[in-house]
Amino acid sequence: MANTDEADLVWPGFSWQLRAALARVEPRIAIPRYAALPQARPLRVTRIALALSLAGIAALTAAAAAGSTNPTVWQQRIVTTLQSSPAPTPSTESRGGRSSGAAVPKHPATPERSEEPRPSPEPSESPERTSGEGEH
Amino acid sequence: MGQGEYRAGSREDFDRLYRVAYPRVYRTLSAILREPQDVEDCAQDAFVQAFRAWRRWRPTAPAEAWVHRIAVNRAISYRRREKLRTVGELLRRLGRPAAQGDPADHATRPDLLKALQSLPPKLAAAIVLRHYHGYTNREIAAAIGVSERTVGSRLRLAGARLRALLEPSFSLGARPAFPSDKSESYGKH
């Protein structure tokens, strides 16, 4: 009496026949083709390489702009450029009343920075957090 | 670490996987593809693809089953190409006498393999993974990315087609050879 399992058989002895048939197949000995591929680099190495290339490009740009390979010269050049750039006169005048009299033309960024904490009613909270809460 | 354990991304482990799995993958593919050159190309392509993805492999399924999945999928596209090539050959030979194959090839090539190669690749793959490699239906389902039910129906369909193809040859001598072989039922695995 054939049960459900036997009804599913291909035929008795099929597995053996298949094994015998496939045993006759001799895989050709071949040099693995993947061996010719460069091994995939880990992501960390790729990131480091990317960061180094970006730093290299930045250094080259700076060297070309400053005309020197010395980073101290780049720094000096940046300071000189910032100092030589004309200060925005109208805004300085409008802020004049609020500022505590910092050297505005010498370091234009300094007064802005010093002004930021002043309007904040809660000195304990950082400006980022306040603005983040406002967005939600 | 056991013999069958692999670390994703390890070159040494992939080499070991290749040594272990290549002959088995090759034999699986030889039941799907007709041309030995296609079998070799397909097996090699499958390992190249597997090597590229080796870093992302997760040991949720056996590595060999994973390579089999890649290989079977590639074999399916190879079969499509093979079909197109055959149609091209037919068109080229139109009006000429049909070329006779090598008689030695006919004599040595088993009919069972020919019958398997004539099945749709997914059916042939299911049969080989089940009956040659001894995977359970669950393992085959995980390996080729289908449900167990689909595997069961593919095996039944493949069995029916093989029986129809090889009716005279299998009914002659094979029946009494392995009466106790119960591993060929599909329902319970």
Task: Please outline the helices and strands.
The complex is a heterodimer of chains A (136) and B (189).
Chain A: H1 4-7, H2 14-23, H3 43-66, H4 71-84, H5 89-95, H6 109-115, H7 127-135
Helix pairs in contact in A: 3-4
Chain B: H1 11-30, H2 36-52, H3 63-93, H4 103-108, H5 111-118, H6 121-131, H7 137-144, H8 148-173
Q: Key features?
A:
heterodimer, A: about 140 residues, mainly alpha, 7 helices, disordered N terminus, disordered C terminus, B: about 190 residues, Arc Repressor Mutant, subunit A, globular
Structural commentary:
The complex is a heterodimer of chains A (136) and B (189). Chain A is mainly alpha-helical. Helix content of chain A is 55%, strand content 0%. Chain A contains 7 helices and no strands. Chain B is mostly helical and 189 residues long. Chain B has one domain (11-94, 110-173): Arc Repressor Mutant, subunit A. Chain B contains 8 helices and no strands. In chain B, helix 2 (36-52) crosses helix 3, helix 3 crosses helix 7 (137-144) and helix 7 (137-144) packs across helix 8 (148-173). Chain B is globular. Chain B starts with 10 loop residues before the first helix and ends in a 16-residue tail after the last helix. Chain A binds chain B through residues 4-6, 8-22, 24-25, 27-28, 30, 32-34, 37, 39-40, 42, and chain B through 9, 11, 14-15, 18, 22-23, 26-27, 30-31, 36, 40, 43-45, 47-48, 50-52, 54-55, 108, 110, 112-113, 116, 127-128, 131-132, 155-156, 158-159, 162-163, 170-171, 174-179, 181-188.
